[in-house]
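Deviations from the work plan: none for this task. Representative record:
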Amino acid sequence: MEILSVNNIVKRFGNYEAVSKVSFSVGEGTIFGLLGPNGAGKTTTIRMITNILIPDEGEVLLFGEKVGSSQQERIGYLPEERGLYKKIKVIDQLIYFGQLKGLSRTDAQSEARKWLLRLDASDWETKKIQELSKGMQQKVQFISTVLHNPDLLILDEPFSGFDPINTETIKKIVLDLKEEGKTVILSTHIMEQVEQLCDNICLIDRGKLVLSGLVRDIKREFGRDTIIMEFDGEDSFLDQFHNIKFINRTRNRAEFRVSDGESSAMEILRAAAQNNNIYKFELAEPSLNEIFIDVVSRNEAKQ
Amino acid sequence: MTKRSSTSKVWTIINHEYLTKIRTKGFIIGTLLGPLVLLAFIFIPVIVTMLSSESTAKKIAIIDNTGKLGQAIVDEDTSKYFITNLSENELRDGVLKDKYDGYLVIPEDFLQKGEATVYTKGGGGLGFISALKSNVRDVTRKERLLDAGVDLNVINVINRGIEIQTEKITKEGTEKDYTEVYAIVGYVFGLIIYTLMILYGQFVSRGVIEEKANRIIEVIASSARPFEIMMGKVIGIGAVGLTQVLCWVVMSVVLLYLIGPMIGNMVSGSHIAQMSNQMGNASRQMALPSGFEIPAISPWVFIAFIFYFLSGYFLYATLFAAIGSAVDQESDAQQLQLPVMLPIILPILFIGSVISNPDGMLSVILSLIPFFTPILMMVRVAATPVPLWQVALSVVLMVGTFFACIWLASRIYRVGILMYGKKPSLKDLVKWVRLSG
């Protein structure tokens, strides 16, 4: 069942069209990746979903209704640029944000305490935000997003500022929430995370939708043309091939795409085996990172 | 979990703004200190008078070379003056040893030349000198009149006449003082409104900038409508202002009407009254009226004060919110704030002429201009009985302008809070108003 559908939304600022006729939909209980380079129109799109901005054309349907004030309470939005009141205590701040999302004071308080406990942050309850480290502040911000038990979570770069351990904690919570049937829109530039977490993605560039679909379909569509190899010894053998496009090349490891797929892969393997010990030779689908760069640069060339 | 209706969002924001602000040290100190400053304004002169009066209770030796005036001066205040036969050297020693506070040498030709010298250790204050002067002057005047052959009865008649006249002047002076007091009350209230409008306007502006600079606004904007956020903030901080003003009014009333008269009675009831009798006519003018009356300030003045403060605050606070929303940081706000600050500051320039002629055409017109009304109408209401129609008209104009300002400000605010990067000009703000249709 679709929980959100974005239909041909357009947003202009003066003469500049920030979002032009973007459409996509997000199914209930899925994690949806909203991708795109900086300034592509992602934030503007998110603002239209969260009812901060109203589209000039098209419409956003949320939970089957045109988005409005009443739906806002069912959304939890974590903006990319974080912000909390520096001089207010953690608990008071969480209660305030909870109340703004329609919780009663007591509910907001008990939910805030529950989440602080879950994120191992109960000790900070009465601390002011300015006394906390950046990572701690990020946790508080994350709690303010999920506190009111929203059905749709919109997370813009949710892992920035977290160390690897906290990143895993938050990731797990996001996956838990998905298990509970919540829907998540994830916007990030870190494609690994998208591959790990997202079911569907859409890619926006220059205000337009350039790619969308299931992550595995998209990857399959791009074909198995990526070779990842690890070896011991001289890597100059790679230089004789001109149809190679390197993604990553270090002394003992190379990741590259070949233009004519599997036939040249065999040649490369043969060349490599002459002088080197090969530890790994993998014919893989391109990473989302590659697909991202590929699509965006092709789109740029078209302009 | 129970979900509440969205109409309570403004209420949540008001609550938050109010509770956050009211707990700050600045607010508590300001609220407590305000009336104390007022108290200081009123009672410092009283206390100064009291202290300087006390300093006249000094022992003064008199060397009378005329042989006529000495006893008369002593009769003016036997507790203070005495005639001595000691030499000047001995007196000087006595003064240095604090046996007495000083000595007065009246030369033989004093009645002709009118020059005498008082020697003291220094200090003693103006009150002491002026009391001495007036005692000597009174006695001398009487003596000169007698010397000129004026009948003693005539002199008494003249003196009595002077006394009656003095009473009258005092009474007139009191009346005049009250007009002045009302003018001062108006001036003070006008200045308080001026200060509060700027202070609380800045609170609003700073609050908006804080939310924008810290990117809190995006989270709040995903929970409530910009209009609700702006109005919640404006009303919440306004409620803080109202709380402060009400505290001040209550504390002032308590101070002025309960503690004030108590101090007044204490001061005038005891030795001051007694002393002022001894100090003679001239100083009696300066003495406190018995019972230390405070001119009755009509409760309407307080009501007007609260109304003009609130309406003025709301008028400007919405504009301050709009300005705050347009900039990324506080330092950028200065320049944009100028057009909002100007109409607040301008009335201060007119206050003088409004006070000197509160019923004049210029005063009436100026006080009806909504942006000037909070200060200038306040001054007039306190200083003079303003015709009801003018007050009513000012209220209507204020409320109308208030709604116009909300309309304007909310349009700027809606666009402004999401605009980062370039520092907008006034032209941009005008564009935003048209843009957010």
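Residues 130 and 283 of chain B are 8 Å apart (CA to CA).
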